[in-house]
Amino acid sequence: MTKTSGEAGTKRAKMAGRGVKVFYGEKRALHGIDVDIYQNEVLALIGPSGCGKSTFLRTLNRMNDTIDICRVEGKITLDGQDIYDPKLDVVQLRARVGMVFQKPNPFPKSIYDNIVYGPKLHGLATRKDEFDAIVEQSLKRAGLWTEVKDRLNEPGTGLSGGQQQRLCIARAVAVSPEVILMDEPCSALDPIATAHIEELIDELRANFTIVIVTHNMQQAARVSQRTAFFHLGDLVEVGATEEIFTNPRDERTQGYITGRYG
Amino acid sequence: MSASVTVALILLLSLIGFWMGRSRAVAVSGGRIASLHSVPNYYGSFVAIWAGLPALVLVLFWLALKFPVTEALVLAGLDVDTIRAWGQQMLPPQDLAQLMERLAAGGSDLLSDNQKQLLLINIRNIAAGQSQYVNPDVLGILKPAAAHYSTLLSLANWSLFAISAVLAVGGLVYTRARISPDLRARNGVEKVVNALLIVCSLIAIFTTLGIVLSLLFESVRFFARVSPVEFLFGTHWSPQTALRADQAGSSGAFGAVPLFSGTLLIAVVAMMVAGPVGLLSAIYLSEYAPRGVRNTVKPVLEILAGIPTVVYGFFAILTVAPVIRDVGSLLGLSVSSNSALAAGVVMGVMIVPFVSSLSDDVINAVPQSLRDGSLGLGATRSETVRQVILPAALPGIVGAFLLAISRAIGETMIVVMAAGMAAKITANPLEAVTTVTVQIAALLVGDQEFDSAKTLSAFALGLVLFFATLLLNVVALRVVQKYREKYD
User: Fold this and answer.
1) Cα–Cα 20 to 30 A to A219, which of A15, A196, B16, B227?
2) Which chain A residues are Cβ-neighbours of B369 within 8 angstroms?
3) Which of residues 282-301 of B touch A (CB under 8 A)?
C-alpha cells in the first residue's frame, strides 16, 4: 500500500485517519486508510463502486454506528481528538461533522422547520428572531433563499430535487458544523441542479471543510483541491487534484481516470 | 341414488375427460406439441371442465329445488278425503271447523301455510320410516301420500343421476371431438378460472350483505315495538319482558345508553393499556432493538394474538380481578369483583400485539434516509423518533389505533366473563359495567322465543355495533391509505 497521507505542507489537518479498518461482520471493507483532511479544503473521494469510499466517509461522523454488524479499527481524529474514544459524545461529534446524503432527504416538515431542526436540538438559539436569522443565513449560504423566502411554511418535500438537496445542505449548514461530509450529493440530480450545487460547494469552502464522495471525475476535478483514489478497500493514492488527474503515480489510478475500468 | 354418488361420478368422468383430452391433443398434434395452440394439459383441463361443470351446476340447482318441488307435487296429489280425515285427527276444533267450511265450499286452497307444514312433517316422518313420531291414527291416512313422496324422491334422485351422467359424457365426447391444434383451450380454461375467482369473491360479499340484511330486518321488527329514540337515548336497560300481564319486576326497558357507556369505558381502559404499551414496544422493536432481539421478541409478541379470547377471559376473572380488588381494598377503595378495570386491562393486553404489529409496520415504512438525515444532524435516537419518525408515521399509527378500538368494542368473551351484567352509566372503572356484546350474548343464550322484544333487541344492538365498527374501520383504512401514498 502506498503511503501518501503525510503530504508536505503547512496546512493544518482538520481530521486525520490512521490505519482505519472497517469490518462488516467477518468481511473487511477497508484495509487500513491513512489520510489527512485539511482545514477549508474540499477533498474528493473517488473510485469504482464498492471500493469503500462511502464507508470511509461514514466513519468520519460515526454514521456506521447505526449498522449493527459494522466495526471500526484504527484512529480517526478531529482537531487531534480521537472520535472513537468511548468518552466522546457521538451527538456532539455529528453536530461538528455534518452530512449531506446521496438522495435528498428533507423531513416531511415545512422548509423553516427543516432548517431549525438541528439548531433547536443543540440549543443554538432561543428566540424567534434568532431562529429567523439562522434560517435566512443558512438558506442564503445554500443559494436557496431567493427561491423559497416567500414560502418558508410550505413542506420541504414539495421542492424540486435540486432545491431539496440545497435545502439539505442548508439544514446541515444551520448547525454550524466544522466539517461537511457529502455522499454523492448530485447523483440524483439533473445537470443544471448539479452545476448549482458544485458552485455552492466552492463557496462553502470558505467556512467549512468538505469531504465529498463522487462517481463523476469531472466533478471531482471541478470542486476539489485534493483527491483520494480508493480501490478494493485500499487508499491507492491521495494528492492535489491536478496532480492526480494529470500525473497519477499509481497505474490503478491511471487506469480508473482514463476509463479503463470502474 | 344419493347426490354424493352422483357428484363422485361426475368428478370421475371429469378426471377421465382430462386424460382423454390430453392424449387426444397429443395425438392431433402428430408428435409436434409446439404446433398446438396450448400445451396438452390445457386441452385436458378444457375437456374436464366441459364434462364436469355443467353437470355440477345441474346438481346444485337440483339440490336447491328437490324438496320444494316434490313436496308441492305431493300436496297437489292429495285428495279431499285424505285432507278431511287428517284434519279431523290433527287440527284443533276451531281450525277444523274452518277447514270443513272450505271443503263444503269446494275451494282449492284448503290449508293454511302452517297446516301444510304440519302435514308435510307427518308425511316426511312416515316416508323416512320414523312412524313413532306420528299419531297412529294419522299413519294409516297418510300412508299412500308418504309412498307417493318416497317414489317421487327416488325418481328425482335417479333421474338426476341419469341426466348428469348423460350431460357429463356428452360434454366429454363433444369437446374431445372439437380438439384440434387451433382450439384455444388455454383461453377457455382461463375464462373459467376467472369466473371461478369472481364467484368466490362474490360469496364473501353476499355473505356480508346477507348478515347486514338479516340484522336490518330483525332490527326493524324490534323498532316496531320499541321506538328508536328510546333505544338510542334511553338510560334504563332491563330487557326482561313480562310473560303475563300481572308479572312484577319485568318492565322491559330498552334504553341502550348504559351499554354504550359501558362499552366505551372498557374500550377506553383497554386503549389506555394497549396504546402506550403497543406503540412503545413497536418503537423499541423497530428503532432500538438489535436484529436478534427483534427476531425473537416480535414472534413472541404475536403469540399473544393467538391466545383464544376465552383464555384471556378467565385470566381476567381469576387472576386480574382479585388482584385489583385486593389492591383497591388496601387503598380503601370499594372495587366490585367484576370491574370494568379488570376487563379493560386484560382486553388491552389482548390488543397490544395488534397495535404493536401495525405500528411497527408503519414505522418501518418511514424511509431510512429520514433517520440518517436526523442522526446526521446530531439528533439522538429518541429525538429522531419523537421529532421525525412519529410525525411521519402518525397517520398510520392513528389508523392502527382506530382498528384496535374497533377490535375492543367488538370483543365479547373477555367482557362476558369479566365485566358483569350491571347496566349502569358510570365513568368509574372500579364498578361493574356491561357492554353491548355482553348483552347480545346474554339475550341469545339458551332457549329464546325469536319474536319477543327482548330477543329482537339483540339484533338492534348488533346493528349499532356493526355500524360503529364499520365506521371506525372505514376511517382507519382511509387514513392508512392516504399515508401509504405519501411514500410510494
Assistant:
1) A15
2) 101, 103, 105
3) 290-291
pLDDT for B484 equals 58
B377 to A95: CB separation less than 8 angstroms, yes or no: yes
Contact (Cβ atoms closer than 8 angstroms) between residue B356 and residue B366 = no
Rounded mean pLDDT, B133-149: 81
Query: A122 vs B378: CB contact, 8 Å cut-off?
Result: yes
CATH code for position B292: 1.10.3720.10
Conformational region of residue B257, where left means phi above 0, alpha means psi within -120 to 50, and beta covers everything else = alpha
For B432-453, the pLDDT digits (tens) are: 888 888 888 888 887 777 677 7
Please name the residue that has the C-alpha cell 334504553. B255
Kindly indicate the confidence band of residue A164, based on its pLDDT and cuts at 50, 70 and 90.
Answer: very high
Residues B156 and B258 in one domain: no
Domain end residue (candidates: B165, B183, B201): B183
What span, in angstroms and rounded, lies between the C-alpha atoms of B48 and B40? 12
Looking at chain B, how many residues does it have? 488
Contacts of A122 in chain B (CB under 8 A): 378
- Measured CA to CA, the distance from residue A103 to residue A203 in angstroms comes to 22
A13-257 in CATH: which number? 3.40.50.300
Q: What is the tens place of the pLDDT at every residue in B6-50?
A: 899 999 999 999 999 988 888 888 878 888 888 888 999 999 999
Contact B391 A108 (CB under 8 A): yes
Q: Is the predicted pLDDT of residue A153 greater than 70, yes or no?
A: yes
Average pLDDT, chain A: 88
Closest CA to A37 of A222, A182, A213, A227: A227
Q: Where are the domains of chain A?
A: 13-257
In a domain, B349, yes or no: yes
Instruction: Give the separation between CA B262 and CA B425, rounded to whole angstroms.
Output: 7
Residue B57 phi, psi (nearest 5):
-60, -40
Give me the pLDDT at residue A217, please. Answer: 87
Cβ of B377 within 8 Å of Cβ of A175? The answer is: yes
* Chain B residues 379-408 with CB within 8 Å of chain A: 379-380, 383, 387-388, 391-392
Cα–Cα dist B374/B287, whole Å: 13
Q: How many CA atoms lie within 13 A of B399 on its CB side?
A: 22
Contact B377 A68 (CB under 8 A): no
Domain boundary among B152, B183, B214: B183
Quote the domain boundaries for residue B377.
251-487
| Residue B203 resides in a domain | no
The verdict on residue B230 lying in a domain is no
Q: Are residues B166 and B71 part of one domain? A: yes
Q: How many domains does chain B have?
A: 2
Instruction: Please tell me the distance from the alpha carbon of residue B270 to that of residue B340, in angstroms, as a whole number.
Output: 10
Is the residue at B143 inside a domain? yes
